[in-house]
Amino acid sequence: MSYTLDDLIYLMQRLRDPESGCPWDLEQTFASIVPHTLEEAYEVADTIEREDWPHLQDELGDLLFQVIFYARLAEEEQRFDFHAIVDQLVTKLLRRHPHVFPDGTLRGERRQGEIATEEIGERWESIKQQEREAKARPGVLDEIPLSLPGLSRAAKLQKRASKAGFDWGEALPVLDKIEEEIAELREAILSGRQEAIASEMGDLLFVQVNLARHLDVDPEQAIRATNAKFERRFGFIEQQVNAAGGDWSAFTLEQLDQWWDEAKRRGL
């Protein structure tokens, strides 16, 4: 017999039982489990990026449990429950996919004919804008979470601004802007003013995210991949240092860099 979603909801209820529940789970609040939610989301992303398919099911379960936990907390405070979350989600997705559910019902038949992905994206943004206006938050940049990683949030801000027409038409002008920002950063470094350096560094990172967006590259995924590549290559250098006695100070940067190049040649 396999457990069901209802079993998971019941398990969460038991964990939060004031008399017989788990002491740790009983201490948690909405705010206290946010860090765990973010960690679980990153673990899902990491598993997918490493194509570790045998462990993806487990990580997705951990992420689902976070939703169940929030739903239980909300139910205890008589705000909503898990079933209300599902109902609202299905209703929203029906509304956002009129090309699949033309009459707005779950069983409605799809219209005939192909629809371009670009057209679907435009409709999606238009519908989301209508939703923001209905929430009395009509600003173009409203509802982009502050808690997102910086690179991801920069990309979302730029994408939303682009939908309003505030964007370069192609990638090459963004490269020119990067060169301009590098010059301004160089000037700030020469001035020695740390506040100006930090500001210009932020501008440079922001415009690099813009270039990534124009090149259809997710900046967060790109930097995560580069982080992993750096770890592999540095690990190779560390192996060589350890094989030679483990004294890092015995090697110059040029010698370490030779091992770095060797790691690149090996495809690490």
Provide an overview of this structure:
- The chain is globular, with a radius of gyration of 25 Å.
- The relative contact order is 0.05.
- It is an all-alpha fold.
- It contains eleven helices and no strands.
- The model has no long low-confidence stretch (mean pLDDT 90).
- Helix 7 packs across helix 9 and helix 8 (172-191) runs antiparallel to helix 9.
- The protein has three domains: 5-80, Orthogonal Bundle (Helix Hairpins), CATH 1.10.287; 150-217, MazG-like (Helix Hairpins), CATH 1.10.287; 221-265.
* Bulk shape: globular
Q: CATH homologous superfamily name of the largest domain?
A: MazG-like
Briefly note the structural class of the backbone. Answer: mainly alpha
Question: What is the number of helical segments per DSSP (H or I, 4+ residues)?
Answer: 11
Oligomer: single chain
- Helical proportion, percent range: 55-70%
Runs in which pLDDT lies below 50 for 5 or more consecutive residues are none
Order of helices and strands: HHHHHHHHHHH
Cα-based radius of gyration, to the nearest Å: 25 Å
Going by CATH, the architecture of the largest domain would be: Orthogonal Bundle
Our estimate of the beta-strand percent is under 5%
How many structural domains are formed by the residues? 3
Mean pLDDT: 90
| Overall strand count | 0
- Main sheet, how many strands, which sense, barrel? none
